[in-house]
Amino acid sequence: AATIPGRDNARGLYLRDEIELEAPMSFSITVKPQFSHANIRTSEEMEDILSLELDLKLESSASWVTCPESLRLLSAQERNGQAFAIRLNTTSLKPGVHYATVSGHDDGSRGSLFSLPITVVVPHSRFVDKEHRVYKIGVKEEISLADNGVDYTTTFNLVPGVPNRRFITVPQGAEFATIKVKPGQYSDSAVAPRVYLHAVPFVRGDMHNVMNQLKKVYQVRDGVEHEFDVRVKGGSTLELCQQLLWLANPSPALVTATVEFHSYGARSQTLISSQPVVIGASSGFARLGADAFLRSEVLNPTANLKSVQRTLRPKDVAITLGSNDLDKIPVSDAERRASKEETAQQIYEMRTTYEFKVEGDKDIAVRPCVTSLFYQIYDSPVDSQLWVMEDSSGQVLSYGSCMHHADSVKLKKGTYTVKLLLRHPSRSTLEKLKHTPIEINMDLNEKLACQVNSRLAAASTPDLKADALGKKVLTKGAHQDVYVSRPATDLPAFVSPGDVLVGAISLDKDKEGVTSMKIIYPVPPKPSKDEKKDDKKADTEEEKTLEDVVFEAKLAHLAKIRSKNSSLYADISNEMKEERPTNIKLLTELLSSTLESPKPETEKDDETSWRARAVGAVYADGKKAIDTASLAQYFGTNAPDKDELDEDKDAKDRDKEMKEQRDFLRKVLLSHAFLAGILADEDSSFSDQFAEAVKELKTWVKADVVKDDKDKVKLTLVNARHARICKGKVASAIAALIKAKKEFNGKELKQINEELIKVYGLGEGMEHLVLNGKDTMYAQYPSFKRSI
């Protein structure tokens, strides 16, 4: 193998930028023999390797590349290869792309043992300057330098099937180019072919091609000029290629392209930088400057934050051996000869699990990304790099790799997991990667505007909009300070400290694609809530009696043993009921126990009947404890405001007591109606009891007062069953359930879907809806969860 040590051991020579053509044209080439791969070699094999000696003849395929006539190639294990030098003479080369090779032959029988490709790009702009502004490329083609010494104009004679390329050196400091294309001076106005335009501004390094290239299709029309913008890097070569599309047997066309270079002097020297503009969490602003040193520029800035990036560490890590049949690296021939036992190297697999929550009532678009391994599919130190995102039920919502961004998925409120698979033959390598973080990108439903100012004083107080930096023209040589302030509005409730808000600042919002820079805002700690200190609290608040303290301790203990010791729970609760039979907190605890505890083994009735009877008993006790007329009268009038309650202790205690009674009454009525609905659905004789329960429920409970998702689902099912069973309105029940599907996910959504499938099954001609609903359920709630 032939490599170039001076160019990061490249396997070929590629000179693309004009500045490289002005550097020394001598390069050292290292040739190292490659032997068959083996971890173990026999003594005979080692002797053959060390005795290698070949006299190679070196040949160059082009006259502008010179090399030695011969090379003696030894094993050179101790010297890491044999070296020779080549020299390039590019002074006589015409503009365009030139290709040559340097190859080594031992004799005519085996052909070339190695070949070093050499590509040299000579820019067309190298042949024009202030004294010679026009260079003729062909009969109808030329390139010319503008009077400002920065811009270029070139003509393309486009014929079917032939791409036409121009290479132009970008001025130092330029940040983007505007390409203007129009029909040539002598073009035929009777034809209007479509042209494919491809611009490549930079090819060095490991930057992915989609990050910087421009691909556009336009139609050549008389009197119409098309304008495109592309990011560039000062000193590099911009390749501009145009070709007729073969869509409708196109006719030849003459096209004129003008390339204008622009700069604000604000972007980093690299074309795509990982160093964004940072709005400090403590300072609340970022500072940068704009300079117009190539030409006058339009400054029309705008800045917005568009998404939230949350970094997660693995919740769980498991490293295991791969498949014993498939995940093995086969042994080499040398290893097979050296050992009778074939011990193939096993591949290890590491599965990491990440967990995150989505909060809020609105859906949020989410996209995971393993940023530390991204865009490294061929150069990555590990294999596989696959991930899947699942909801709490195990449904696969999205999947992707570490090469291309997956599409964002809109998620409802809930808990989600991301599982990542990495593979490597070495377990120790995977151990070093077991804490690999993952980035969760969550799009904001509404952009957060960041004010752009011209003065520091205004940047530190973003609420003042008088000094906002508006549209202006920077004359050549002018400078403008630019300050980007933090958002003046409140951050979304789901954003927490440790998250990073991400967006972009565009120095000209009309050319956002090429003048934008990434901005980030690390989320600061949330502000403390404004709480007024109650100086009278210590004086007015009465100390709890010993009986109250003991009663509350027993109540807390009841909640802990609710599902652990039913007999002890019954003994303590009965004792407390005798002590305080009308205590609302005790009745609320008894209701929770009735709804959540398993059915006693001594009960002969089915579970629904038993729970309905138990809830009814708690409801009866609640009626004795609550004066519903007084409760309705209290909430039927205007409630006292907070200041009045703070000044009047008795009124405050009464308000607290009334709210506890109302919350208990709502919960017990909802549970009573829900269980009655199940019984009525199974046995029509309970329909009247169900209708009465719903009537009483509607007196105290409406959809907008229910906050818990479980209670919301119960209320939805109660209303749907009441419409179907008591009123015979099946369509209304279906409509209510379909509407509710948009609001829930997880276990709550499963209850809605099960009820909807049941309602479909009761109707005629709805068999296809039942099947479709069941198929959806199988996907959303898989019985078997596959590992990634």
- Helix fraction, binned, reads 25-40%
* Rg over CA atoms: 38 Å
Q: Which residue ranges are poorly predicted, with pLDDT under 50 across at least 5 consecutive positions?
A: none
Largest sheet: 9 strands, mixed
The general outline is elongated
Number of helices: 19
Distance between the termini: 38 Å
Defining traits:
788 residues; nine-stranded mixed sheet; six-stranded antiparallel sheet; 37 strands; elongated
Task: Explain this structure.
The chain has 788 residues and is α+β, with helices and mostly antiparallel strands. The chain contains 19 helices and 37 strands. The strands form 8 sheets. Strands 20, 21, 23, 28, 31, 33, 35, 36 and 37 form a 9-stranded mixed β-sheet that branches. It has a 6-stranded antiparallel β-sheet with strand order 10-11-12-19-14-17. Strands 2-9-8-4-6 form a 5-stranded mixed β-sheet. A hairpin with a 4-residue loop joins β29 and β30. It starts with a strand and ends in an 8-residue tail after the last helix. The model has no long low-confidence stretch (mean pLDDT 87).
Concise summary:
With 788 residues, the protein is an alpha+beta fold.
Q: Helices, strands, pairings?
A:
Blueprint: E1 2-3, E2 13-15, H1 18-21, E3 26-31, H2 43-50, E4 53-60, E5 65-66, E6 70-74, E7 82-88, E8 96-105, E9 112-122, E10 134-136, E11 142-145, E12 152-158, E13 164-169, E14 176-183, E15 194-200, E16 214-219, E17 226-231, E18 237-244, E19 253-262, E20 277-278, E21 285-291, E22 297-299, E23 302-312, E24 316-321, E25 328-329, H3 333-338, E26 345-346, E27 348-358, E28 364-369, E29 383-391, E30 396-401, E31 409-411, E32 414-424, H4 427-432, E33 438-453, H5 456-459, E34 472-474, E35 479-487, E36 500-506, H6 512-515, E37 516-522, H7 537-540, H8 546-560, H9 566-579, H10 584-596, H11 607-625, H12 628-636, H13 642-647, H14 649-682, H15 687-700, H16 709-726, H17 730-741, H18 746-762, H19 767-780
Parallel strand pairs: 2-9, 20-37
Antiparallel strand pairs: 1-3, 3-7, 4-6, 4-8, 5-7, 8-9, 10-11, 11-12, 12-19, 13-18, 14-17, 14-19, 15-16, 15-18, 21-35, 22-34, 23-33, 23-36, 24-27, 25-26, 27-32, 28-31, 28-33, 29-30, 29-32, 33-35, 36-37
Helix pairs in contact: 8-9, 10-11, 10-14, 11-14, 14-15, 14-16, 15-16, 16-17, 16-18, 17-18, 18-19
